[in-house]
Amino acid sequence: MFYKDERLALFIDGSNLYAAAKTLGFDIDYKLLRQEFMRRGKLLRAFYYTALLENDEYSPIRPLVDWLNYNGFTMVTKPAKEYTDSMGRRKVKGNMDIELAVDAMELAPHVDHIVIFSGDGDFRPLVESLQRQGVRISVVSTIRSQPPMISDDLRRQADNFIELEDLRDVIGRPPREPAGGDGGNR
């Protein structure tokens, strides 16, 4: 459902895509992901949204954010907010939905097709609005997890649903050898 001459933009909800891929048991190779969508159309932008814990000495996502930034992705980050819930548990909040929605609305006049990597039902009104502006919308998530990681409303609203599991062979990183293994050498 892609046309070679259409102008494409990718909007990646980082935490949502990470959770969906993890549930399916694979890691995403973002270089391959970008190449795949460059092959499908004229890729104008690839946005990646994530919240970062600014006060941590080391954030496990920092190397990925830096790599994406240097390799053709437009990074949209903001500081995550830490709080303690009513049970005394440390929680982190870093929702990027508004930033993604605003950027998608601003870019809509310049693209033919937007691919949203998220199953978050909060994006349904955004998809509906983008469609009214003449933009085709594909949503990438999974229904193969229990429970499904994509909201039924979002899936129905999108022009096209792409099952993340079906992209595994195209954008998945090969599994790493278990630590301490001999890598198959005997």
UniProtKB/TrEMBL annotation:
Outline the extent of the NYN domain.
Answer: 7-165
Coiled-coil residues = none
Domain of life, per lineage: Bacteria
- Designated name of the protein: NYN domain-containing protein
